[in-house]
Specification:
Residues 371-424 form the FAD dependent oxidoreductase central domain. This protein is α+β, with helices and mostly antiparallel strands. Among the domains are: 4-129 and 142-328, FAD/NAD(P)-binding domain (3-Layer(bba) Sandwich), CATH 3.50.50; 493-576, 2-Layer Sandwich (Alpha-Beta Plaits). Helix content is 27%, strand content 28%. Strands 4, 5, 6, 12, 13, 14, 15, 16 and 17 form a 9-stranded mixed β-sheet that branches. Strands 1, 2, 8, 9, 10, 11, 18 and 19 form an 8-stranded mixed β-sheet that branches. It has a 6-stranded mixed β-sheet with strand order 29-30-31-28-22-32. Helix 1 runs parallel beside helix 10. The radius of gyration is 27 Å and the shape is globular.
């Protein structure tokens, strides 16, 4: 074992070996993997070995597609077979709603270059003769599904890495990881200490334990997962003989089961509702290639449905039952990336679909380590999507919920109930008392919409317009005609102070910084000139700034801030230490006049002004800006003042028509202004030129991160452009990721959308190839499998000149 190396990867499962291989592929050959036992001796060895390209996040789906295509490469390098069986597979729909979901998944695949096909139940029966077609309404066929040998695949990665120069050390447990003053690491093992520049935690079942060595509590939990192997089946032999091929894979959503051929029989696995966590608080180090006690009673309901849907299974004997632990994050996606505030420490864990995602995880993380950026959009897998608010108990509840729903539909208006309420603001009960239907954003409760009565304060889940439609519309009209009230405590809020604060932000942000008492809108760029943030920045004094952004990206952005902040500059997240409301609409100034302890006239408090002054008796931070595109204000107070502020606003706004509104109305209002949002329109795959944010970046200013790449992107010209469309929708609006058609060809994709109630039209925002963006052209947008006519707008629907915001 070397005494020093550039990177130590902890964990010899498929993910750790993939990371190791991809590092060598990038030219970093002085790298080492340390495994406590043997390769695959965690979850990998007992995995069912299935793979597929389908994922609800298109960016993750791309990485899954890359993973599947990678297997031939590592076989050729290593000479080790992956045992690849590219059989193709069917995803079976037993209900209309599931068929709609498959149609939307098929539509996403169009612009991802996938080759799925929507088929009838009869066609599914022809492809997969073991099903009872009467139990299904249709299916989706994917030619790039199949299964492989977990042992062979992991060793193919490992051998390829070793051929490229990597070292693999087995039977050597990592005992501790300690960081030196210079940011490098001592990795302390049973066989001695290795000095490394970087550490990658790919510990799998032991990732929590490895994280705890540095005081890190990762939000992952292992779940027991069972599948069974049947004895040889004559029906399988008949299919093999008739087709000359093995039986294709199948995923039965209603049965919550997956199945494939295994030798002369079939493998049948399930994600049962009565799921069971394993080793909830600590993972024993002496657990190796062990299996857990089977519990057929727990999966019996799923098996009963499976036997109905696949009648031949009911006649087959069970040869073996496999029950083993796999780790999951609360949302089921991997945890990948650098840890905020910890130099050169990386994680690649929670990858429960290792043979679908392991290659993509290795590619992304190796790019990140070598280049400082993954090279593409991996926000759906980024460990920074979870902040300090996660706890062991919260993770446990959300992982169990995700596991039990793995094959269930999550509708776009469906909020999941586990571990809720978890985080609340001081006015939570007051909003519920106003009949708010609450949502969960990063563990924090926030109002989605307001019902007319407690009995009606619930969502009817659907892909189509639902019971909230009319009520959200009334909220939107209240904002446009009078004044609306929205709690905004769930915005991310930061304070930057210190003698070097101005210089720090000037280097970090491409827009010019504001003068004291003013605000600016600005993106943040990575070195490649692509969007990694979208902020409102206010300057309160020479050395004090406040920044507002997306709560989804709070931990993500704090990681960037802390990595870039020089000595003497303080950057802190204000979190729920600052709570507030937004008021918006033509009567919002009159309401402000009644409560503000200063002049808030058009001249006295201009658009994009920010100041600290009293509202009634309360000290507040006030900015004249809103995301609605209307006249409005953001009002921020300490949490102990929030209830009093709500009372003040309600009492003084009642005769003005003040009405509470929620996140769904805010979305509707921002759509008719063509305002983008972080994680949808603004992501690390787009430049400001493509996102039409060019007015918020300065090409004259120098010295900021990403400037050279930004100017190069400007000179090259955009590959695609963000556009707003009015869609001739029926009873369903876009939700995101639908393909955009022009002249029979897919030329782009939807990023977000919905119904713009105040304008009375259905709206979609999306990116279209630059050469195909033309307001005079005819477009179609595919909604639940049907292409609907769409018109590209040349200006926003509401107040295109922005006069209402500035009035």
């Amino acid at each position: 074992m070397r005494s020093s190396t550039r990177v130590v990867v902890i964990g010899g499962g498929v993910v750790g070996c993939s990371v190791l291989y991809h590092l060598t592929k990038r030219g970093w050959t002085d790298v080492m993997l340390i495994e406590r036992a043997e390769l695959t001796a965690g979850s990998t060895w007992h995995a069912a070995g299935g793979f597929h390209t389908l994922n609800g996040d298109p960016n993750v789906a791309k990485l899954q597609q890359y993973t599947v295509e990678l297997y031939k490469e590592i076989e050729a390098i290593s000479g080790q077979s992956c045992g690849l069986h590219l059989t193709g597979g069917v995803m079976l729909a037993g209900t209309r709603e599931r068929m709609e979901w498959l149609k939307m998944a098929h539509a996403r695949g169009r612009y991802l270059g996938m080759h799925t096909e929507i088929i009838s139940a009869a066609e599914a029966k022809r492809l997969m003769p073991l099903i009872d077609e009467a139990k299904f309404v249709g299916a989706m066929y994917d030619p790039f599904e199949g299964h492989l040998d977990p042992y062979g695949t992991t060793h193919a990665y490992a051998k390829s890495a070793k051929i490229n120069g990597a070292e693999i050390v087995l039977r050597n447990r990592v005992i501790d990881t300690r960081q030196r003053a210079d940011g490098t690491w001592d990795v302390i093992t049973e066989q001695g200490t290795v000095h490394a520049e970087h550490v990658v935690n790919a510990g799998g079942l032991w990732a929590r334990e490895c994280g705890r060595m540095i005081g890190l509590e990762l939000p992952i939990l292992a779940m027991e997962h069972m599948y069974l192997l049947t004895e040889d089946m004559p029906e399988v032999a008949e299919i093999n003989a008739a087709t000359g091929k093995e039986v294709i894979t199948a995923l039965d959503f209603e049965g919550e089961i997956y199945t494939r051929q295994e030798r002369g029989g079939m493998l049948l696995g399930t994600y049962e509702k009565a799921c069971k966590p394993w080793s909830e608080k600590t993972t024993p180090w002496d657990f190796g290639q062990n299996l857990l006690e089977p519990d057929l009673d727990r999966i019996a309901p799923s098996l009963e449905v499976g036997f109905e849907h696949f009648p031949a299974y009911a006649r087959a004997g069970i040869r073996r039952i496999i029950n083993g632990p796999f780790t999951f994050a609360p949302d089921g996606n991997p945890l990948v990336g650098p840890i905020r505030g910890v130099q050169n420490y990386w994680v690649a864990c929670g990858v429960m679909a290792g043979f679908s995602q392991g290659g993509g995880v290795g590619l992304a993380l190796s790019n990140w380590i070598v280049d400082g950026d993954p090279g593409f959009d991996v926000f759906g897998m980024d460990v920074a999507r979870y902040g300090d608010w996660t706890t062991l108990g919260h993770t446990n509840a959300k992982v169990r919920e995700n596991y039990s729903r793995r094959f269930r539909i999550r509708f776009p208006n469906e909020e999941l109930p586990a571990a809720r309420p978890f985080r609340t603001t001081p006015v939570y009960d007051r909003l519920v008392g106003m009949n708010a239907v609450m949502g969960d954003l990063c563990g924090l409760e926030h109002a989605l919409w307001f019902a007319p009565s407690p009995e009606e304060a619930k969502d009817d889940f659907s892909f189509r317009r639902s019971n909230d439609f009319a009520h959200v519309g009334a909220e939107c009209r209240a904002v446009r005609e009078a004044v609306g009230l929205l709690e905004i405590s769930n915005f991310a809020k930061y304070e930057v102070t210190g003698a070097g604060a101005e210089g720090f932000l000037d280097r970090l942000l491409p827009n010019r910084l504001p003068a004291a008492g003013r605000m600016v809108l600005t993106p943040m760029l990575n070195p490649a000139g692509r969007l990694i943030g979208d902020f409102t920045v206010g300057r309160l004094s020479d050395e004090r700034f406040v920044i507002f952004g997306s709560s989804l990206a709070e931990a993500y952005h704090m990681r960037w801030f802390l990595a870039a902040a020089p000595a003497g500059v303080s950057v802190r997240s204000l979190g729920l230490g600052l709570t507030g409301f937004q008021i918006a609409g033509p009567k919002s100034r009159e309401l402000m006049t009644r409560i503000a302890a200063r002049d808030v006239s058009a001249a006295g408090f201009r658009f994009m002004d920010v100041a600290e002054f009293d509202l009634g008796t309360l000290p507040a931070l006030v900015g004249r800006v809103t995301y609605t595109g209307d006249l409005g204000y953001e009002l921020w107070v300490k949490p102990e003042h929030q209830r009093t502020l709500l009372d003040l606003l309600v009492a003084n706004g009642a005769d003005l028509g003040l009405r509470p509104f929620g996140a769904r109305a805010l979305n509707s209002l921002r759509l008719e202004k063509s305002f983008g949002s972080w994680s949808r329109e603004y992501r690390p795959i787009y430049t400001p030129w493509e996102a039409r944010l060019e007015r918020f970046v300065s090409t004259q200013k120098t010295g900021y991160i990403g400037r050279d790449a930004l100017l190069a992107a400007r000179d090259k010209g955009p590959e695609r452009l963000l556009n707003t469309f009015v869609v001739d929708a029926l009873d369903a609006d876009v939700i995101g990721d639908e393909p955009i058609w022009r002249d029979g060809t897919v030329v782009g994709w939807v990023t977000s959308g919905g119904y713009a109630h105040a304008s009375g039209v259905s709206v979609a925002l999306g990116y279209v190839e630059a050469g195909a963006s033309d307001p005079s052209a005819a477009y179609e947008i595919e909604i639940i499998g049907e292409r609907r006519p769409a018109r590209l707008l040349s200006e926003p629907l509401f107040d295109p000149k922005g006069s209402r915001m500035r009035m």
